[in-house]
């Protein structure tokens, strides 16, 4: 097999990168130790857009996002329409896609595993032209998340102050009136505290917070929170820890291939893959099946191939043979 050529984009401003003290020479040494060919871009003076242009112009077949989920999404957006694959070195706080793919979260272990990884095709989603890999959330949650970002790295006093703000803001939050239309022609009016549109579905399971086993179903999952108070938060958190939250009375869950959300407001605050931004209404969501090629551990790739083969065998059977006994 031809050896892969990697172009690595390091987010030197990532809190995790700075906390771990990850440097360009450290990464060069790791890749050399495992016999991997890499060009590393750790230039803090260039904008991310400029660095992405360099990555796309390189002769590498795989671009590595070395940073958090925001870095991963930005690079994924760029490589979707290219002939390059995406790889991830999880150097963020949440590392959501890396966890979904089953990547080692230890930096050195992940570098060591790169050589044996194989391409995996996964879905990507879009809202009003912005690509996302996980979810987009509107309502009270983006505002609370923005407040959390403002105190990142601050001391305990700021954290305690944020908790006071969190529960005070939650108690005063007004529900949004939204019109939700799906591609199958269904339309409904909801009054919500928050609504999330996810690329595929989050699974239940003991201690599995926001984890997706399936990344290629071709479906958006819509999570509607009609009410969200302190009691709801504690109950939902306990349910997530126990692995039983999808049937909680505060949540309504549905799926669709496309979704449009309208409001009387001209713009809404949205948290898209962890980044809070103002988005023009209506919010139009789409999903692109298996549009992104990422490197994943061989186990994940084999599981996808096995599922594809099982589906193909099922399609080849006569209709009667596919009916349950």
From TrEMBL:
Cross-referenced Pfam families: DAGK_cat, YegS_C
Molecular function in Gene Ontology:
kinase activity
Ranges of Basic and acidic residues composition bias in the record: 306-316
Q: Which domain of life is it from?
A: Bacteria
DAGKc domain span: 1-131
Keyword list, A-Z:
Kinase, Transferase
What residue spans carry the region label Disordered?
Answer: 306-325
Q: Which SUPFAM superfamilies match?
A: NAD kinase/diacylglycerol kinase-like
Q: What is this protein called?
A: Diacylglycerol kinase family enzyme
**Native species:** Pelagibacterium luteolum
């Amino acid at each position: 097999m031809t050896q892969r050529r990697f172009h690595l984009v390091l987010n030197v401003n990532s809190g995790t990168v700075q906390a771990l003290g990850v440097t360009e020479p450290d990464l060069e040494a790791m890749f050399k130790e495992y016999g991997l060919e890499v060009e590393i871009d750790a230039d803090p003076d260039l904008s991310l857009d400029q660095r992405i242009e360099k990555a796309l112009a390189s002769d590498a077949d795989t671009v590595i996002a070395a940073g958090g989920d925001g870095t991963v999404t930005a690079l994924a957006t760029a490589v979707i329409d290219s002939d390059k694959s995406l790889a991830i070195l999880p150097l963020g706080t949440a590392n959501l896609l890396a966890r979904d793919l089953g990547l080692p979260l230890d930096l050195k272990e992940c570098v060591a595993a790169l050589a044996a990884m194989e391409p995996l095709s996964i879905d990507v989603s879009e809202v009003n032209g912005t690509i996302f890999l996980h979810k987009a959330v509107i309502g009270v949650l983006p505002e609370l998340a923005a407040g959390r970002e403002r105190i990142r790295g601050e001391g305990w006093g700021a954290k305690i102050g944020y908790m006071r703000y969190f529960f005070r803001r939650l108690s005063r939050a007004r529900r949004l009136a939204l019109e939700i239309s799906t591609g199958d022609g269904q339309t409904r009016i909801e009054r919500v505290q928050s609504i999330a549109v996810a690329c595929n579905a989050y699974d239940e399971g003991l201690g599995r917070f926001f984890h997706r086993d399936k990344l290629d179903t071709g479906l958006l999952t819509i999570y509607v929170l009609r009410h969200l108070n302190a009691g709801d938060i504690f109950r939902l958190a306990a349910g997530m820890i126990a692995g039983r939250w999808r049937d909680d009375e505060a949540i309504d869950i549905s799926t669709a291939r496309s979704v449009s959300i309208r409001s009387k407001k001209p713009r809404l605050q949205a948290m898209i893959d962890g980044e809070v931004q103002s988005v023009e209404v209506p919010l139009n969501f789409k999903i692109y099946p298996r549009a992104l090629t990422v490197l994943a551990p061989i186990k994940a790739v084999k599981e996808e191939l096995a599922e594809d083969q099982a589906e193909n065998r099922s399609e080849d059977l006569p209709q009667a043979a596919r009916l349950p006994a």
